[in-house]
Amino acid sequence: MIENENLAEELKHLLIFSHLSGTELTNISEICDVIIYYDGDLIVAQDTESPYFYAILEGDVSIWIKGQDGESICVSEIHKGDIFGEAAIFIDMKRTASVIAHGEVKIVSIFREKFFNFIHKYPRAGLKIYLYIIMSLLNKLKKTNVELTLEKESTVSAKDLERLKAFFPGSWINE
Predict the structure, then answer these.
(1) 95: buried, middle or exposed (CB in 10 Å: 19+, 13-18, 0-12)?
(2) Over 80: is that where the pLDDT of 56 sits?
(3) What is the mean pLDDT of residues 151-155?
(4) Half-sphere exposure (Cβ direction) of 109: Cα atoms closer than 13 Å
(5) Coil, strand or helix: which one is 8?
(6) Tell me: the pLDDT tens digits for 102-115?
(7) Which of 57, 151, 174, 175 could form a disulfide with 106 if both were Cys (CB 3.0 to 4.6 A apart)?
(8) Contact 14, 97 (CB under 8 A)
């Protein structure tokens, strides 16, 4: 972890914190840990539990999920201003993916209990942050639903087969 005297100023540029007052920004910055990761560093490991959520101040990370064969598959990249691990604010559960630094990355992490104490003192700020987190989770769910729908759709339709038959007149395809 590193010390960062200007953290409140950096946080106000992140969408999740952009609607907080100066006092709220100063106080939330006091519960944040700032961490620098380097290319290839593991930030979050799939199937582990952690009471932290994260926001990216600088850089990019890639999201990896283990497939059925045990091989990791890169499913997404997220960038400066994005958050991840936000489900940890609500409940203890295993991480659904691994997060790996893509180049140098500056991240803030927030511990659940410290966040709860913050929202006890600043409920309006807590509500703003919770609404952002809920929207983030809903958007991720929507994206996943779209991807699952595309995955379930047949990749070759009957219409595609009919067009293919035209290229091979009199062949076994037309039988």
Answers:
(1) middle
(2) yes
(3) 69
(4) 15
(5) helix
(6) 999 999 999 999 99
(7) 57
(8) no
